[in-house]
UniProtKB/TrEMBL annotation, chains A, B:
Pfam families: HCS_D2, HMGL-like, LeuA_dimer. GO terms for molecular function: (R)-citramalate synthase activity; 2-isopropylmalate synthase activity. Its EC number is 2.3.3.21. Belongs to the alpha-IPM synthase/homocitrate synthase family. The lineage of its organism: Bacteria, Bacillati, Actinomycetota, Actinomycetes, Propionibacteriales. Keywords: Amino-acid biosynthesis, Branched-chain amino acid biosynthesis, Isoleucine biosynthesis, Transferase. NCBIfam families: citramal_synth. SMART domains: LeuA_dimer. Pathway: Amino-acid biosynthesis; L-isoleucine biosynthesis; 2-oxobutanoate from pyruvate: step 1/3. This is Citramalate synthase. PANTHER family: (R)-CITRAMALATE SYNTHASE (PTHR43538:SF1), ALPHA-IPM SYNTHASE/HOMOCITRATE SYNTHASE (PTHR43538). Residues 7-269 form the Pyruvate carboxyltransferase domain. It catalyses: pyruvate + acetyl-CoA + H2O = (3R)-citramalate + CoA + H(+). It comes from Nocardioides anomalus.
């Protein structure tokens, strides 16, 4: 199967992935992501298009000085030379040559119509562009991969020409020719047939670059690999233009865990979840919770039906062990779950509810009651734990009594508006009146509340609000709508999520903030 | 291929889809979604599990009176009878029988280990449960489908038993036996082999129910159909537990547009985008922008490279015409796009920039300048249009001059906190000082602003803020962070999106609100 020995796992998040709507990466972001991808053990990181994109030129410049990759090789992406100009004289080709990358991936047209209408040149000249540019960069000492753009559409329109482009690149010294489903419209069986034909007819070393427009990017990649491709391109978290590139972690996890193909350095797949989420933090796109393998819901079980079986044997309901990709199994508490889920959740949090059926029944009833008013405990373990403690011990932990709070945001003649909150509370027998400022009402309230409590409990100084989610629950349009807020608080080492509900978003946020600090103090053993 | 004539498109959003983490549907929500699914022309809508889930019992009761489905048949889901009890005496089976649904889908264990450990009964009794329950419901006049739970894992563990479950159901009168990849771990080639074997060996009519744990739910569904399945189960928008069910619209669009299979009533696929987004509004889960076919980014083109080719022929860069699924091609303005994208975008909005290269150059420069400070025009067409107007005519449309604004949220001894905003501005020569209230600071400001402007321009009365998105752009941690706000305003007929940027989230929101109203007034021809 591996005609050529090693298998290439090739990430193009920093180039093709960056074409996703709304994705804007700074050079610093790109360097950070490159290090994260290297931690996963990918073989190649396509860093961008130096020369064409000023940000990317800067990236390669800084990468040469600052990036110390342990596993991956940095590749520079760019197109074949312009028509009618020698590769050696083309400044954009020079930028690739001078990028410092040891590998260059050249994109070339392999669809005759694109050569005609987009490049506006002849089929012969396009082949010369391929031959000349690949040959030039090889002679200058770089390894070259070729991305055959629109390959599958080109193969259908003019099979002979498409294959000729591949041969030309390969004969000129390209080590891999990646067949790109640029428009993303292929289906797996079609990909398989084409890859078989390409390999049988030309003998080139084939790669696959799939997009998800038919919802089959992962399957198309696997089909190509099964047909003999030994190089797969994709993006972590499936980033990319339109519907995205093939999700590289999904492809790799399938290869390693289901197809017994060893494509990453040993042991690194177990960091996949951590790394996928870390990259998502940098891109500022919240990771899709339903994402295969690494999504926060990927191993989260809700239905009461499943939860009772999981008590018996987790493998009965999971297609693989979550630890193999660094993920966790989670049991969700919700109104769909029966007592089995709540009992298991309680146990997970350190409460043994199995010995007291009536307590379990009242906890279950209270959960359903609160959920009917808009609370959710599914994603708010800390709030659920406070609830359990209240019902098991008879008293909810309390560290302070709030008198009042208010927050004002107003325009300033000096510049931007500032938010200012005043909180009045009693803690440890003393009354505190504190004003805090922030870049928004919730931030200002958080500052004021923590400063006020911090006078009695210094532990809160290191707490920090690190995530904030708002959802409007449409019980009816307009003033009826309930707002639910989820807040994630961190103490620098770990983090916890609390929930707040109300008609007013600031009121709901306040509830989650108070719970978050209460829980945090509880954890500290105060 | 169609041994049995018609092909079944079967949606289980209201049952399996509802098991998605965070998804909570009221009975009213379910009725609304059922009507929406019917509008797409699906053949079957699985409404829930009456008898086991009180909300679902209520749904079926109300459906009988209120749902008038034109295309779909409502199905009730439930399990085979309990071990050791006759189907005719089992109250949960009675609930299915009495649900009013003309079709019942029974879930049965087909994996021997599940029969043993989860059901805690014998393999023979499980077959009797299948035979008895299917037979009973058939005798009572309902059509019966069987969901063979964990079928593929069961087939691998004990092929003979798994096939025996299918035969038993079919012989007892089930019209379809749906093979469920309950844990979602299958890959397309494996599914194909199993489906071929099932059909060759038993001759049953096969359905497929795939989950996306391997990222191959759509491909697995297509593989099964290619191997002879004539019934496909999935969820609109790919809802479902863990990684979700197969995205039913993706499957259907692939069948109709790429595989020449007519599976929906003619003409209805063109409503897919509208319906997918409408269902997302009800579930309160924002639709995934990268979703195949119906996602807002599915046909959105960003790279300057592509935009210049699209000017020539859209089919060069799209795998299908967006209109076939009711979607649109969009060109994104961003710092990755060159002048080609901005020129095309300008033309889309009614500005001809091609005649003035220096104007195009300064617009492009201004866009990049603003994007460097945090603005994005990609999703904010209305703000981009105001910018173009400012640069083309030399003046930005202005309808009012703001003096100041402030918003206060404070606790009330009477109940929840209330937000109150005061806006001072001049419009049409008069000064207005208005106070508005709301369920949050931005809502209160919006009320005050529109009331203030409404005194000079009554047109704004019908404007409504319908969507609000906040993103923190991490230029550095803490006080440096820029907030970007996108606001969608509607006048009841159409809607537009504006963007605001600032260090303070309320300041950023204010900017987007002002642009939103300005643009709205401009549209009205004021």
């Amino acid at each position: 199967m591996d005609l050529h020995g090693d298998f290439h796992v090739y990430d193009t998040t920093l180039r093709d992935g960056a074409q996703q709507e709304g994705l804007n990466l700074s050079v610093a972001d790109k360097l950070t992501i490159a290090r994260q991808l290297d931690g996963l053990g990918v073989g190649y990181i396509e860093g961008g298009w130096p020369g064409a994109n000023p940000k990317d030129t800067e990236f390669f410049r800084r990468a040469a000085a600052e990036l110390d990759l342990k596993h991956a090789r940095l590749t520079a992406f760019g197109s074949t030379r312009r028509a009618g100009v020698r590769a050696a004289d083309d400044p954009q080709v020079a930028a690739l040559r001078d990028s410092g990358a040891s590998v260059v991936t050249l994109v070339a047209k392999s669809h005759d119509r694109h050569v005609d209408l987009a490049l506006r040149t002849t089929l012969e000249e396009n082949l010369a562009m391929v031959r000349d540019t690949v040959g030039h960069l090889r002679a200058e000492g770089q390894e070259v991969f070729l991305d055959a753009e629109h390959f599958f559409d080109g193969y259908r329109a003019n099979r002979d020409y498409a294959l000729e482009v591949l041969r030309t690149a390969y004969d000129a010294g390209a080590s891999v020719v990646a067949l790109c489903d640029t428009n993303g419209g292929m289906l797996p069986d079609w990909v398989s047939d084409v890859v078989h034909d390409v390999i049988d007819t030309t003998g080139v070393r084939v790669g696959i670059h799939a997009h998800n427009d038919s919802g089959c990017a992962v399957a198309n990649s696997l089909a190509a690999i099964d047909a003999g491709a030994t190089h797969v391109q994709g993006c972590i978290n499936g980033y990319g233009e339109r519907t995205g590139n093939a999700d590289l972690v999904t492809v790799v996890a399938n290869l390693e865990l289901k197809l017994a193909r060893s494509v990453l350095p040993p042991g690194l797949l177990g960091d996949a979840t951590r790394i996928a989420h870390a990259v998502a933090d940098v891109t500022n796109f919240p990771p899709a919770s339903r994402q295969p393998y690494v999504g926060s819901s990927a191993f989260a079980h809700k239905a009461g039906l499943h939860a009772s079986a999981i008590k018996v044997d987790p493998d009965l309901y999971q297609h693989t062990q979550p630890e193999r990709v660094g993920n966790d199994m989670r049991l969700l508490v919700s109104d769909m779950a029966g007592r089995a889920s709540i009992e298991l959740k309680g146990r997970e949090l350190g409460f043994d509810l199995s010995s007291s059926p009536s307590l379990l029944a009242s906890v279950t009833a209270r959960v359903k009651e609160l959920e009917a008013t808009g609370f959710t405990f599914e994603a708010a373990d800390a709030s659920f734990e406070l609830l359990l403690e209240e019902m098991v011990t008879g008293a909810r932990p309390t560290y302070f009594e709030v008198e009042s709070w208010r927050v004002i945001t107003e325009t300033s003649p000096l510049g931007e508006a500032v938010s200012e909150a005043t909180v009045k509370l009693r803690a440890s027998g003393e009354r505190h009146v504190v004003t805090g400022e922030g870049n928004g009402p919730v931030n200002a309230l958080d500052q004021a509340l923590r400063t006020a409590i911090g006078q009695a409990f210094p532990e809160v100084v290191k707490f920090e609000l690190i995530d904030y989610k708002v959802r409007i629950l449409d019980q009816g349009h307009g003033t009826d709508a309930i707002t639910r807020v989820l807040i994630e608080t961190s103490d620098g080492e770990s983090s916890w999520v609390t929930v707040g509900v109300g008609h007013n978003v600031i009121e709901a946020s306040w509830g989650a903030l108070v719970d978050g600090l209460t829980y945090g103090l509880r954890r500290q053993g105060v």
